[in-house]
Specification:
Shape: elongated
Strand order of the largest sheet: 1-2
Number of strands: 2
Structural class: mainly alpha
Largest sheet: 2 strands, antiparallel
Order of helices and strands: HHHHHHEEH
Amino acid sequence: MKLFLDSPDFLSTVASETDQNIEVARTLTSGLTETQMNWKPSAEQWSIAQCLEHLAITSSKFDRYFSVALARARRKWPVTNGPCYMPSMVGGWLARQVNPEGGRNFRAPKVFRPSESSSIHGSLEMFLNQQARFLDFVRESTGIDYNNTRLRSPVTPLMRYSLADAFVITVLHGQRHLAQARRVREMPQFPEA
């Protein structure tokens, strides 16, 4: 999270970290068969495909909230220079929870859970398409005060945080589950093809 707090160009940092997540996903899945993508270490653990599907689902649930927040921000909070990131209390707490370097493990809310199927197809494409959509929202945030722009959580309307928080949470959440997928691929019992 420090990277975002220290960044002189917050939106560029979000975009470059998202690009890194995309590259990690491509590298991680390069050469894998659908069988390997769907292999689960145990019934309770996710496959690589489930990790990617979860990230795509989670990000997609924010689309409508991002659209509404951006439209409102253009009217209410235009700026000429993008502000430095200032986490809200709730957003900062959520970012710390999903941080891959020390967050806590939570069961994913039902709305964000991947399929239980062992034959998920196209999970990488789903993830890449949703990351492209997310980057569109990031680019559309140029010229607004993303710290003052609030949105509701797709999980519960009672939880509100800034658009900037949602961007940070999305990137950190991606890093967390891509690391989880990498651990699956590195397991000694991971199938060879």
